[in-house]
Every structure is written in C-alpha cells, then in structure tokens.
Amino acid sequence: MENFAADLKTMVRTPLEDAHVKAMREVGVVSVKKAGEMVQEPGAATDEFHYVLSGELEAVDPRTNTRMGNATLGPRQFFGDLQFLSGGKSLAGARAVVDSELLCVPRAEMLRLMGDMPEMSDIIVTVLAARRRRALEESDSALTLLGGEQSVDIRRVASFAARNRIPYREVAIHSEEGDAIAARCNIDRAYPAVIFGQGQKIDPPTPEAVAAVIGLDIAVASDELFDVLIVGGGPSGVAAAVYAGAEGLKALVVEDLAIGGQAGTSSRIENYMGFPTGISGGDLVGRGEVQAMKFGTRFAVPRRAATLTQCEKRRFHVALDNGQSVSARALIVATGVQYRKMPLDRLEEFEGAGVYYAATEVEARWCRASEVAIIGGGNSAGQAAMYLTRTCSHVHVLVRGPSLAASMSDYLLSRLMAHPKITIHTGTQVSELKGKDVLEGVTVQSEDGDRPLGIAALFVMVGAAPNTEWLSGLVELDDKGFVLTGAAVGGRTQYETSCPGVYAVGDVRATSVKRVASAVGEGSVVMSAVWDHVNAASD
Question: What single string gives the DSSP state of each residue in 89-104?
C-alpha cells in the first residue's frame, strides 16, 4: 500500500483549488456520513464524485469488507478510480472512519466541470490513473480468478482483464486460499471460477459476463441517439473518441475484445514520436481511452457489431452481438484487421491452451522457461519475439517467405538476428499441432522436409483480415474486404465512404499506411468531416 499512500501524499501537495471546490458546490450536495457508514458500496455504480470536506474515509476491500491498506482519505481529498470516468462499477468501497462531511457531485455534472476546468481535470485524472496503476501492479481488486493453471476459460478472462487494464487476482485451485474461496462461495474446490467481491460467482466465466458485472458493457437505451458511433477501439478509434469528446459530440466506442485493438498486444512500440524508450501498445492506447472518457465519450466492451442498417431519417443503426441496437447520426469504421487463423487441424481446440494471438504478460506466464514459436514476419511478430525472450528459454520465428527484410523494420530485424535466444526459420510453415489437452509441439515443413519442433506455445501473428462483414453491403469494399474511401467512391472527404455519413480510418481503410502513428492521425483528422455531417444532420 506504499504506492497508494504516495498517491495520497501527492494529492495533498496538489489539492483541488478553492475555485474548483466552489464550482462543485454549485452542482453538488453536502452529505453527512456517520462513523462506520458506507459512502460507496463495492460493486455499485460510480455515479457520484465524493470529495471530503471534513472527517476521514477508508477504502474498503470488497473481498473482506475491511480496510484496504493503511492509508485513509482526509479533507481536500476524494475517493474513486478510473471506473468513475467510465461510469462502471466500483472495484472497491469507501466507508466513513469518523463522522464525515462530504461534497457529492453527480457524475455527469462532474465530467462537465472537468471539461470546463482543465486544471481541475488534470489533478483528478492523475490521481485516478495512479490508483488504477497501483491496483494493477499489486493485483488489488474485487475480481478473483480461481484456477487459471487448469482452465482455458479462466485464462481467457485473465487475458481480457489484462488487456483492458482491469486489476484482478489469480489464485491456484489447490492452495489454502483457493480452498477458502471455494468454501465461501460453495463451489467444488477443484472447480475453476471467477469471483467478484466476497462471494459472487460470475457464471459463465466469460469476458462478457465479467464486463457486465463490473460495468464495462454499458447499457444503451433503445431510443438513445449518439452523434457518432465509433466501431473499433484500436489507435484510430480511440483517437477519434478523444477528438469527438473534445468537440462536444456525444460519442460511443464499441470494441469486441479490448481497447487497444491489435496494437494493444504490442509489448513495445519504439518508433512512435515522443517515446524515445518505447511504450507498450496497451499503455499508449490506454492513455487515449482515459482522455476520451474525461471528455465524456463512452465505451462498451466487449461488444461486436453484427449488422448495419440505415433508416429513412438517414440515421445509422448497428445491431450488436448481444441483441442491442445502437443508433447514431454518423458512423466511423475503425475495426482494423485481425490475424488470420491458420488452416490447421485442432487449432481452435488449442486456442488458449498453447495457441495465442497476443504476446502479453498473461500469455507469457503460461510458457515461462519453455521454447515457443511465432508465426509471422511483421513488426508485431518481431516485438513479440523480443518480449518473449525475457521469460522463455528460446523463441523460434517461423516465416513462410525467404526473408523478413520486406515486412519488418530494419532496427527490429537486426535485433532479432543478433539475439542468442531467437532463431529465424525462413521458408518454413507449421503443418501439424501436437498434444493432448494442451499444445506440446508442432510439425514444421521446409525445403529440408518435415521435422518436429518441441514447443509449449505457438503465437499466430500472420495475415491481416479486415473486419468488415458487419457493414452489410452499405459501403463499397475492395476485393480483399478493405473499405474504400474518398472521391473515387463518391466520398466528400478522404475518409468518407460511398455512403454519406460513414467514415473509415486506420488499418481497415483501403490504401491506409499500416502504422500506429498513421492510424492515430486518421482518427484525429476525420473528426472535422464528422462534425460537419452531424451539424447538417441535426438541422
């Protein structure tokens, strides 16, 4: 808890100014809480901002209902973490230690004030983000994953949580703590499970169910109309989300897996301006997500767009995979691309049990001290190879073509070739997966014939299939499924599609440059055209 205490000390040094508190008083109410009374229930919606005028608050561990750490909050401090910005549910509780007086501001009003007063916003966002970082670093959360060492389902939840920067704890089934959790939740001690708080079992143990419990998958009213709907939460989608919110547009981002998209799986991006020592894709896009939420943009994860229609009012209606429908005046397609699934027998059987499509800390944990292989020759594959050398005994990079020179940045290729724990196999492809319940090896084909390769994990990072099936034929695509834009298809701007009001940015757009910086630029620039369309559609 030392980091948490440090966060609070930082807040004491940079408290909200008197003008900030005065503005909050104009839209908030003063509430008196008796000693021992709850201020924020764990797992409840974070619909108010709690500022301490007098007294003392303690953070409440939702697993034990006791104080979380040694730090408490005093006058001129406030409770909460990033769930407040997203409108999700609280991952911890708050309770009055002594009789306390609080200034409580509705979330919508607080977000408006933060937009109007940048200095106040900077202080609040810095503290909320620091608390989330601490929770992630210390695995301090209401979310407990039991049995990831045995269950593919639990591993998928762990990957989902990690990629969405949701703090969670992992507990082995056959451990003293695992037995205690199983007994408390009345589940079989050998049965993997996801637990929220003291004993709420999340069933089924899926990313969708977890998102619903913690409030990531926001509810959208059937008659709610957004100015702009952004489908895809990668660099281009999040950049668009930031600028939409900054321009005062009512915006919603729908993402089918994790904010960050394919870029979010990159362990280190070194050629993005402003980060000379590199930054992970998850951290880069995660910062953008916080910015967008600060401006009021909403996010729904994990939700996949299923179909697109347009009504007689020229509004766009996107049906989601959960049966909901979202309506907007303008639509931005930012769904990017996804790695192609290899035509291999038993591939889906081993997904999550030795076959992975991302190389983050979560996946690396399951193949520690083992040999692994990566299929792919792009920068993502190269970055994954470098990252995996930290924990794996050896990394094999399997490339179908004769070299990596045409597909990988020179600086990265040089590092791979020089690294003693990396072997590059050109003219090589996987022909067979081996193992019983988990992957135990593969057979590879090359000019020298077939040979076995004993590996514990296979990372598939090849191909670039655009996610455009859901567009339902309303916009023109090229022969590979990428979205066509610009004057050639009747678009009024570089990013507008053949359907007025629908825009495409990032990797999903035909002829786009497949780089993170380019995607961010397109997501930023497109908003001026969206603004003009929304204003015209509102007349």
Answer: B-SSEEEESSSEEEEE
Vertex 518: Cα angle to 314 and 297 (nearest 5): 50
* Helix%, strand%, coil% for the chain, nearest 5: 35, 25, 40
Report the chain's C-alpha Rg in angstroms. Answer: 24
- Dump the DSSP string for 167-179: --EEE-SSSHHHH
Longest dimension (CA), the chain: 78
Quick check: helix, strand or coil at residue 267? coil
Residue 326 · residue 320 · CB < 8 Å: yes
225, β-bridge pairs: 327
Global pTM reads 0.90
The CA distance from 3 to 69, in Å, is 10
Separation of alpha carbons 253 and 87, rounded Å: 14
- Buried b / exposed e across 491-525, counting CB within 10 Å, b at 16+? bebbbbbbbbbbbbbbbbbbebeebbebbbbbbbb
CA 324/CA 318 separation, integer angstroms: 8
Could you tell me which residues come within 8 angstroms of residue 195 by beta carbon, excluding any fewer than 6 positions away? 143, 144, 146, 181, 185, 201, 202
Tens place of pLDDT per residue across the chain (539 aa): 344 444 444 444 568 999 999 999 999 999 999 999 999 998 889 999 999 999 999 999 888 888 987 889 999 999 998 999 988 888 889 999 999 999 999 999 999 999 899 999 999 999 999 999 988 988 888 899 999 888 999 999 999 999 999 999 999 988 888 888 888 888 877 789 999 988 889 999 999 999 999 988 877 887 899 999 999 999 999 999 999 999 999 999 999 989 998 888 887 888 888 988 888 888 999 999 999 999 989 999 999 999 999 999 999 999 999 889 999 999 999 999 887 888 999 999 999 999 999 898 889 989 999 999 999 998 889 999 999 999 999 999 999 999 898 889 899 999 999 999 999 999 999 999 999 989 999 999 999 899 999 999 999 998 778 999 999 999 999 999 999 999 999 999 999 999 999 999 999 999 998 889 999 999 999 999 999 999 998 76
